[in-house]
Amino acid sequence: MKNKPKFLSFLLLLLGCSNDDCLQQAQSNFIKGNYQSALVAYECVVRNNPEDYIAYNMIGMIYGQMGNSEKVGKYIDTALYINSDYAYANLNKGALAAVDGDTVTALKLLSKAISIDVNYQDAYFNRGILYENLGNYREAIQDLRFSLMLNKEDHAAYYHLGLCLIKLNNRDEACANFTKSLSIFYTDEVKKKKELLCM
């Protein structure tokens, strides 16, 4: 089984796999969670088109899913080198900076992702969480509310919005957000927090 990805790579090259075929294979395998096969197919994409910044970003994401943090940054950096205005890569690079504790860079990159795509829900959510972690609850609330305007079914955004509202002593609205979060997706964590703060 260990040689399967190498065989797939060889097969794709031997068959003269078109970029569209490789991309279709890559996306399909990524969605199914077949990360090794998706990686091989995305590598085929960048061999066919070395300027495909989306594929480089996805290779970085796959390495992240596979737990290879060393290669994540390398491929996301390559994507940004090719296209510094690719919002998704800015978000990913910002998330990496946040994990590394570099909140200044993280905020800068998440803000850049938002400036590139003003309707980028994930960027608002991630920046909101970062603001929450920094104790900047008003900014967090603003971003989380905007995130929810873009995706009214994001249970995690309701939960974190509730946490920030509690910090600003807005208990009633916080509890309403916990309830909304639970109505979308039940978790023991949210239930316990609601029971602790809202009963």
From TrEMBL:
PROSITE patterns: PROKAR_LIPOPROTEIN, TPR. It comes from the Bacteria. TPR repeats lie at residues 121-154. InterPro entries: TPR-like_helical_dom_sf, TPR_rpt, Ycf3. Keywords: Repeat, TPR repeat. It holds the Pfam family TPR_8. Transmembrane segments: none annotated. This is Tetratricopeptide repeat protein. It comes from Hymenobacter elongatus.
